[in-house]
Every structure is written in C-alpha cells, then in structure tokens.
C-alpha cells in the first residue's frame, strides 16, 4: 500500500499524513495548523475517503472518523 495524503478542501491546502488507522478511527498528523473540529477531510488517491475531524489530540495531531470505508489507507 502506498502512503495516502490527507487534504482539507479549502482555500489553502493543508496536507497531513496518517499516523494510524483502527477501523473507522483515523489519527492524522499536520505540520501546519490543525483543521477545526467537524472539518471534512479527504484522503485516498482520488479523494474518495471522507474523514470528519472529531478531536484535536495535541499540537500536531487530530483524530477523525471515516465516513466511508478506509480500505486502502496506509500510514505515511
């Protein structure tokens, strides 16, 4: 599996990387600013996986819930 980038659809692109995937729970690391809670993130080669931010875990990580199947997501 190839690493899958996470993007938040907005005026400016803020790309993160997946830290872990446990079922539909996804932890994502961002080097820039964290997306706000309830933000819809897109992942996958064609942005086919939707993830809603549920919590900001620390300065660099958020936890989200996948609204679509997470098959094909990989760390990195």
Overview of this protein structure:
The structure is a single chain. The protein has 76 residues and is mainly beta. The protein has a single domain (5-66), classed as Thrombin, subunit H (Beta Barrel). It is 0% helix and 45% strand. It is built from no helices and 6 strands. The protein has strands spanning 5-7, 16-22, 25-30, 40-43, 49-56, 61-66. It has a 6-stranded antiparallel beta barrel. A hairpin with a 5-residue loop joins strand 4 and strand 5. It is globular and about 25 Å long. It starts with a strand and ends in a 10-residue tail after the last strand. The mean pLDDT is 87.
Q: Helical region count?
A: 0
Q: What would the principal axes of the Cα set say about the shape? A: globular
Poorly predicted sequence stretches spanning 5 or more consecutive residues: none
Structural class given helices, strands, pairing?
mainly beta
Major β-sheet strand ordering: 1-2-3-6-5-4
Query: H/E element string?
Result: EEEEEE
Observed structural traits:
about 80 residues; mainly beta; six-stranded antiparallel barrel; 6 strands; about 0% helix
Quick take:
By secondary structure, this protein is an all-beta fold.
């Amino acid at each position: 599996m190839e690493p899958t980038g996470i993007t938040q659809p907005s005026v400016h692109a803020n790309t993160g990387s997946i830290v872990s995937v446990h079922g539909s729970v996804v932890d994502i690391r961002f080097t820039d600013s964290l997306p706000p809670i309830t933000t819809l993130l897109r992942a996958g080669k064609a942005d086919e996986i939707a993830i809603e931010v549920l919590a900001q875990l620390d300065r660099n990580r958020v936890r989200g819930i996948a609204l679509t199947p997470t098959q094909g997501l990989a760390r990195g």
